[in-house]
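Checklist before submission:
- one chain only
- standard amino acids only
- sequence pasted in full

Submission:
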Amino acid sequence: MEEFLPKVGEDNHNYEHYRFVAEEGQQPLRVDKFLMNFVMNVTRNKVQKAIKDGSVMINDEVVKANHKVKPSDVVTVQFEFAPRKTETLPEAIPLDIVYEDDEVIVINKPAGLVVHPGHGNYDGTMVNALLYHFKNLPENSEGRPGLVHRIDKDTSGLLVVAKTEHALSHLSKQFHDKTSERLYYALVWGNITEDEGTIEGNIGRNLKNRLQQDVFPEGDQGKPAVTHFKVLERFMYVTLVECRLETGRTHQIRAHFKYIGHTLFNDERYGGNAVLKGTTYTKYKQFVENCFKLIPRQALHAKTLGFEHPTTGEMMRFNSDIPEDLQQTLQKWRGYTLTNK
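Returned file contents:
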């Protein structure tokens, strides 16, 4: 369980308050590592400062960094950060606009750009850019201007943004009714033996690490999720796949492929930033490390986006080029595969 309450103190500083109750299955874990797992986008320095300031408590007692969190412990923390405006402000951030008319905007988002403001990312987001480039965008149910859907910060690719209330309602219904088209390219660890297949399994928040999503195949937790995939290219120890989303859960592709034993390449949050498949030779490990440097993020790209235009009814389909970092990584794997066949 997590509670988050932003607060402004008498010194005009902002504070973030969190409260966690450790799950029954929680293994003893240092409180600093526990907080790194459970607080989105927090830095190690921020955790250490909070501990040093006496702002971290377990069962109402101030603790040090090496104190172990155990089942049912109540962990509270107060983070201080500099004064900021709660209003989302326009920022002159360039946008790669693939298509625009009076109703919709299609944007090719680069990796590294956060879609909307949230904890740890209060500015510099795509929403800040939208407010600068466009006026009077409609707000969705979460108060976010124009957003119909979103993709992760370190995932690149296509999104559609609504310019009118009608477009927002119409497009949101398409995503809800699963009539939109979303195709992703993903480079995953391991050689997927099937040429194509479907991954099914409810997706919900991981019980021990709230920054991850997990698959619950029995359907007792989470929400239904379906990912269809097709193998595009094999590189001995990694595979390039095309993924078609039938549903749109948080981290769906990342969680589903980890579940079937094929974690996304260099996906740090899900363990894909280690050498998961291949040889034990030092030369091979160095090759993989060089690939990680080329694509310092999960190897996932939202390549194709299709939807019915909210006014004309025309089916629209957009394709984006594979970004340079993923292209270079694929080329290195092609060369490695040819050399080592």
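Reviewer check: Residues 324-339 form the longest helix (16 residues).
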